[in-house]
Amino acid sequence: VTGYHFHVRRDKRGAIAGTRFEVHLETDPAHPPHSPEDPPHAHPHPHPHTHPHPQPGTHEPPGTGAAPLDHGRTFADIRQLILNSPCTAWVKDKSLAVFRRIAEAEGKVHGQPPETVHFHEVGAVDSIVDIVGACLVLEQLGRPRVLASPVVEGSGWIDCAHGRLPIPAPATLEILSAARIPVAQSEEPHELVTPTGAAILAEFVERFGLLREFVPARIGYGLGMRETATRPNVLRIVQGESPFPSEAAERSSAQDPRDWESDVVAALQSNLDDVPAEILGRFMELAMAQGALDVFLAPVHMKKNRPGTLLTLLCDAAHADRFSELILRETTAFGVRRVMAERRKLPRETVMCRTPFGEVAVKLGRLNGQLLHASPEFESCRRVAEQAGVALKQVYDAALRAAPAS
């Protein structure tokens, strides 16, 4: 994604000083690459923003120099951009999950499939920066748990590409509804929660509510575009920790000579003895498409000597409630067990290896710099095998031979 630049400056909203961060298209005459209002450090940079052009994901006020509406990238186009980017697998997965929430909401509102939802050209750039940028920042912060205060929206109306819409915007409401996030309206006559903001909250936030047992460490303030009447137009981010760390957290923070990665996932389980195999197959596809880390089935012998199936789903801890509901709705389960499990993972990277049939992506896993595993990516092998007209196993074996030895 090219053709844009950053404007970054210190400013105030109400009595609070913070940072105003913007991304502008190079083609917008209202925002040239070098603006005299920018401090010296805010020089142009090839990265994507919030631009005053209405589109899925952001709604800005009219009369701000917006370009005529044009059809830009679809969700399918943006997905390919992200998948082909040099971002890590985690950033790609999370960015796509956030984008999918917006596409599904916009598709539902406008009656079209999510894959065909258009993020108009300015909106595509804006949304890519907002969403991929948020995921990059969370990764740089160590993928922390994310908590949020209760969601408060404004009231009134917004004028955007789809005409005049009530606040909360229809797509914002759809996203909050799908994630079962409570929302309250205030007297502020402006939009306070955009679809992009709602989707980021829905994907990452583990719990909404007031601060509890939280020690603030670092605080940042991001400034919105306009001055608001009832509250400062400020987004506050607080980084901190619990004063009562769990035993697991204490173990993971202790000195460890290994450079592996660690996180906590939710393991959801249910014993089933009355569900058709076809329903379980569909459930696995549905859960993986919605972002489950893994789904697997195992035969078990249940009470009253009945043979059954143990369904296990792994997901991010923040999404445990959503996937628990999915299990209850899509299978015959009457209950779901939940266990939080620590994971230790090898730092991994993906490299392209040249084979006689073409280049194949190979995932490498290392521990303290030593290569332990090399695993050819299945989709990459399949694509190369189909193009070369050879057996998949030939490509797989050739990729293993071409992989680095250390």
Question: How would you characterize this protein structure?
Answer:
The chain contains 10 helices and 19 strands. β17 and β18 form a beta hairpin. The relative contact order is 0.09. It is globular, with a radius of gyration of 24 Å. It has 406 residues and is an alpha+beta fold. The protein has a 4-stranded antiparallel β-sheet with strand order 14-15-13-16, with helices on one face. α1 runs antiparallel to α2 and α2 packs across α5.
Give a short summary of the structure.
With about 400 residues, the protein is α+β, with helices and mostly antiparallel strands. The protein has helices at about 75-85, 90-110, 120-140, 170-180, 195-205, 245-255, 275-290, 320-330, 380-390, 390-400, and strands at about 5-15, 15-25, 75, 120, 145-150, 150-155, 155-160, 165, 185, 205-210, 215-225, 235-240, 260-270, 295-300, 305-315, 335-345, 350-355, 360-365, 370-375.
Can you give the mean pLDDT? Answer: 83
Q: How far is the N terminus from the C terminus?
A: 34 Å
- Summing up helix and strand content along with how strands pair, one would put the structural category as alpha+beta
Largest sheet: 4 strands, antiparallel
Low-confidence stretches: 34-71
β-strand number: 19
**What's the shape?**
globular
Radius of gyration: 24 Å
In percent, how much strand structure appears in the residues? 25-35%
Helix count equals 10
The percent range for helix content is: 25-40%
> What string gives the helices and strands in order?
EEEHHEHEEEEHEHEEEHEHEEHEEEEHH
As laid out across the biggest beta sheet, the strand order is 14-15-13-16
